[in-house]
Design goal:
The structure holds two protein chains of two kinds.
Chain A: H1 10-14, E1 19-20, E2 28-30, H2 33-39, H3 45-48, E3 54-56, E4 62-64, H4 74-78, E5 85-87, E6 95-96
Chain B: E1 4-10, H1 14-25, E2 30-33, E3 48-50, H2 51-55, E4 69-79, E5 84-90, E6 101-103, H3 106-119, E7 123-125, E8 130-136, E9 139-145, E10 151-159, H4 166-170, E11 182-191, H5 194-200, E12 207-215, E13 223-229, E14 233-241, H6 242-248, H7 252-260, H8 266-269, E15 273-283, E16 294-295, E17 298-300, H9 316-335, H10 342-354, H11 356-363, H12 367-372, H13 380-393, H14 400-415, H15 417-431
Parallel strand pairs in B: 1-2, 1-10, 2-7, 4-12, 10-17
Antiparallel strand pairs in B: 3-6, 4-5, 4-6, 8-9, 9-10, 11-14, 11-15, 12-13, 13-14, 16-17
Helix pairs in contact in B: 1-3, 1-9, 9-10, 13-14, 14-15
Classes of the chains: A alpha+beta, B alpha/beta.
Protein name (chain A): Ferredoxin-like protein
Function (chain A): Could be a 3Fe-4S cluster-containing protein.
Organism (chain A): Sulfuriferula multivorans
């Protein structure tokens, strides 16, 4: 098909959404950074998170910023080998607030 | 909040609202807890509403429910890279009231449903996340919320907390979900003038169209795309098994963007203004992935219980129906002044088994595996079908018999005769 990839900025998509960010209290965290950096060679979270919350640094470290999180649960379930994601819902009233859903 | 309730319902989506409404209407003292700012603010769906399940709960829902368009036409597309071959079914019968299917916008619909729940007498608390179930031994006796002094107690807790079902998992009622048990769907809503949608889709005021899509748009993953017409917006999305995303390392929003650029899809969206991007998991593991659905003082309803029929795109109707059955179970036990023990709550399982809910779940129990191990259903066949149509429809001086032979040859080359027969058998087994 249109084999060349269409450039997409997920930030532009997320910009349309409404959030109430719980500043300084992320609802998801990586349990053990070394597991991602040393043991996990696939790091699917950095590819499959639909909000692009996970990125890889040059040294293989995975960085998680939850501000744009859509609270779908993908990262929680996709990390099935290491179960290295501590995943809670945001405090009541915080996080994504869908206008249309 | 030291009060004790007859029932606590966690979540205000279709299953939670159905459960809370049914119990409140019967006079039970019901507390419903929702983590969003308002019911619907955390909820995502395509969305098509099937009337029947809601009708059985709120027969007059059409009077004031926010419905977008009733569906008069269903299209199924099988897409190759630059083409599609499809079927269309349109009927004037679908234009006769009462209408059977509607497009809805969940944030609005859930808010409406919740107003009905509150009018029936349930107490709704929003902006409150339930962090844990409170147990007395094996028995659930209440919930712990993130509010100060946030413990609340009830005879029964109905878990309507959605696909991630964190509470039941934390309590050890079921294991963690596996990537093969869920589909990940991403979608966008694009706004366009009402008249533009009507002329573009050849429909009148209030009439709607559904397009379901399969083929190359999912890039070899097991899944489908969809396009729904709302009143003054279009919903476009794509969902595939999370195990496939994981294995093939595909980025969901790039998949959606590629799909939107397909030459058959792009013109339908032209000029629209994108106003929201959402992602959601759909519990598509089927019957074999279903958890235990009840126990001492608890029941699971809706997505949390894996109640989705992926083949027929049914979920919210199963959510409402299971919510109602759970509620009716509680009402029946309350009337007889019986405790909410697992033995007594088994009535719920019985109701499910006797109804279309479990009959359909069982009918398609092998479906997930069949498609999992046969990705060519989503790649090779769409390509072959589209090539066949292209060959037959191109007038180029080649006689039709030769064209037919070429098409047969292309199928055999790509799948072999045994492969084709095997696929036919698998499909027959799956739908039998």
């Amino acid at each position: 098909m249109n084999t060349e990839k269409i450039p997409v900025k997920v930030e532009e998509k997320l910009f349309q959404n409404r959030y109430r960010v719980d500043a300084g209290r992320p609802h998801i965290s990586i349990i053990n950074q070394d597991t991602c950096r040393v043991e996990c060679t696939t790091q699917e979270c950095t590819v499959c998170c639909p909000a692009g919350c996970y990125t890889t640094e040059g040294n293989g470290q995975v960085v998680l910023i939850t501000d744009g999180c859509l609270e779908c649960g993908t990262c929680r379930i996709i990390c099935s080998t290491y179960r290295n994601v501590d995943w809670e819902y945001p405090r009541g009233g915080y996080g994504i607030l869908f206008k249309f859903g | 909040m030291d009060e004790k309730f007859d029932a606590i319902v966690i979540g205000a989506g279709p299953s939670g609202n159905a459960a809370a409404y049914t119990m409140a209407k019967a006079g039970l003292k019901v507390l419903q807890i929702e983590r969003g700012e308002y019911p619907g603010s955390k909820n995502v769906q395509g969305a098509i509403l099937y009337s029947k399940a809601l009708e059985e709960i709120i027969p007059d829902f059409r009077d004031d429910a926010p419905l977008e368009r009733h569906l008069i036409e269903q299209q199924m597309w099988v897409l190759d890279d630059e083409s599609y071959i499809g079927t269309t079914f349109r009927s004037a019968e679908f234009n006769q009231q009462p209408y059977n299917r509607y497009t809805i916008i969940r944030a609005q619909f859930d808010k409406w449903f919740s107003k009905r729940v509150q009018a029936a007498g349930a107490l709704l608390v929003c902006e409150t996340t339930v962090s844990n179930l409170i147990m007395d031994g094996k028995r659930v006796i209440g919930v712990q919320t993130d509010r100060e002094g946030g413990a609340v107690y009830a005879d029964i807790v109905v878990l309507a907390d959605g696909v991630n079902s964190l509470l039941a998992k934390k309590a050890g009622f079921h294991a963690e979900l596996e990537p093969k048990d869920v589909a990940l769907a991403v979608k966008e809503i694009h706004f366009l003038p009402e008249e533009t949608i009507q002329s573009r889709f050849n429909i009148g005021e209030g009439e709607g169209v559904v397009i379901e899509m399969a083929g190359k748009i999912t890039q070899g993953m097991m899944g489908t795309g969809f396009l729904y017409t709302n009143k003054d917006s279009l919903t476009i999305g794509v969902g595939c098994m999370l195990s496939d995303f994981k294995q093939q390392k595909i980025t969901p929003y790039m998949l959606l963007e590629q799909m939107k650029a397909h030459p058959a899809i792009k013109p339908l969206l032209a000029g629209g203004e994108m106003k929201e991007y959402t992602a959601h998991l759909i519990p598509e593991g089927g019957y074999k992935a279903m958890p235990q659905l009840y126990g001492e003082g608890w029941m699971i309803v809706g997505d949390a219980g894996m109640f989705v029929n992926a083949v027929h795109r049914e979920g919210s109707n199963l959510a409402m129906t299971t919510g109602r059955y759970a509620a009716e179970t509680v009402i029946a036990l309350k009337e007889k002044q019986l405790p909410m023990t697992a033995a007594n709550l088994a009535i719920y399982q019985g109701r499910l088994e006797d109804s279309f809910v479990m009959k359909d779940m069982k009918k398609y129990k092998n479906m997930p595996e069949i498609f999992h191990n046969n990705n060519h259903f989503f790649t090779t066949y769409p390509e072959l079908l589209n090539r066949a149509a292209h060959t037959m429809l191109t007038v180029d001086g080649v006689d039709k018999k030769t064209k037919e032979r070429e098409i047969r040859k292309s199928f055999k080359q790509r799948r072999s005769l045994f492969g084709l027969m095997g696929d036919a058998y698998k499909m027959w087994r799956a739908f039998e």
